[in-house]
């Protein structure tokens, strides 16, 4: 699973080519789309108002709700010292049978989380 954290969502909104390609290609299988955790969308929207409306219209994205399990993971990761904005991406990467890859502009934030962070470069 490909997961976009808040830094990747911001890069997408600012025209990142790779992420734009992922976001505009409509795929029939939702499991094959790029996934945006709800808290990552909130964090991006707090930095750049209007993000949610913009990315919500893109056909290649799937949005992950903040359920009880995700909330518990966010609580644990924040208690361990990770900023709240990254917690939902950590949960999304760990759920399911195949570990997810988090697309991010800040891969160092995922050090010591066990998450496979893919550096999209600074934008």
Helix content: 40-55%
* SSE succession: EHHEHHEHHEE
Overall pLDDT score: 91
What fraction of the residues are assigned to beta strands by DSSP?
Answer: 15-25%
Please report the distance between the alpha carbons of the first and last residues.
23 Å
- Structure classification: alpha/beta
Helix count equals: 6
* CA-based shape: globular
Mind summarizing the main beta sheet? 5 strands, parallel
Q: Which consecutive residue ranges, at least 5 long each, have pLDDT under 50?
A: none
Q: Order of strands side by side in the largest beta sheet?
A: 3-2-1-4-5
Tally of strands: 5
Radius of gyration: 13 Å
Provide a descriptive summary of the structure in words.
A 5-stranded parallel β-sheet has the order 3-2-1-4-5. The protein contains 6 helices and 5 strands. The protein is α/β, with parallel strands linked by helices. Helices cover 45% and strands 15% of the residues. The longest helix is centred in the middle third of the chain and has 12 residues, at 68-79. It is globular. The two termini are 23 Å apart. Helix 1 crosses helix 2 (17-24), helix 1 crosses helix 3 and helix 3 runs antiparallel to helix 6.
């Amino acid at each position: 699973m490909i997961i976009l954290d808040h830094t990747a969502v911001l890069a997408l909104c600012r025209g990142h080519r790779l992420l734009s390609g992922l976001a505009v290609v409509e795929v029939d299988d939702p499991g094959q789309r790029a996934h945006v955790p709800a808290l990552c969308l909130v964090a991006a929207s707090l930095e750049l108002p209007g993000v949610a409306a913009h990315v919500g219209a893109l056909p290649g994205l799937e949005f992950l709700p903040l359920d009880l399990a995700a909330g518990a993971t966010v609580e644990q990761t924040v208690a361990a010292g990770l900023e709240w904005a990254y917690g939902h991406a950590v949960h999304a990467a760990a759920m399911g049978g195949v570990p997810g890859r988090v697309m991010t502009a800040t891969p160092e934030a995922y050090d010591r989380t066990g998450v496979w962070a893919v550096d999209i470069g600074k934008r």
